[in-house]
Design a protein that fits this description.
Structural class: mainly alpha
Strand content: under 5%
Order of helices and strands: HHHHHHHHHHH
Number of domains: 1
Distance between the termini: 49 Å
Helix content: over 70%
Mean pLDDT: 88
Low-confidence stretches: 1-12
Largest sheet: none
Length: 267
Amino acid sequence: MSVTTFVSPPAAPHYRLGDVVRSERTKFLSLRSTRWILAAFPVAAVVLGMVIGAATGAHWPHISAASRAHWDPTNNILAGLIPGYIVLPVLGVLMMSSEYSSGSIRSTLVAVPRREMVLVAKAIVYAAAVLAVCEVVTFATFFAGQAVMGTAPRATLGQPGVLRALLLSGAFLVLMGLFGLGLGAILRRSAAAVAVYAGVALVLPSLLIALPGNLWRFGPIIILGNSVGAVNILPGFLSPWAGFAAMAAYATAALVAGAALRARRDT
């Protein structure tokens, strides 16, 4: 008499979001581009903020009365964050596209078949790491720029709207990077994703100026420079919180589209 023994197949590896986040954090911090960008951006922002502050102080005696009436020293110095408009979204793109260019995405998907979880983990890691850097850089740029403004009126954290502008500006840069991450998930190629980001953020607002409806106001960089990072909001621009919500919508739409397309693709 023979006895048939049934052997259960090995259980699939069990993983949680926290496990995937730790894995993505290791990969993110191991990227050379991450280290270079997160090291160079603070230096560039602070130096540019000081240059702008010093130039403003030197030209303040010659500024017209109309310009002085709309003077916003906070917004002026936060122009030092301009390098972040480019490098942080590029970092977001590379966080996704570098896995496709190297082929390591196959190993990632073997380890974590739930593709949407991989993208969620990448977004969490990016937001946590870059938010800390951006907030520190924003405040450092503000204080460094204010310190060299000479005779020009300065801003302080106690003035209405200043602290809000600083906090939202740092968080806004993170949303721009998450928008880049979403584009990287959609297009999977670094050059294409960076080109699309540049088109949406830099080129499209310039083209929309000629159209009715003031649609150019909804460009990410326009929102940051004239709403989120400003204390004295000029007429016709979005309010700071509305502008922040608009950038959150950009980032969310890109990430959701990226997740949907990843679910339909082989890799």
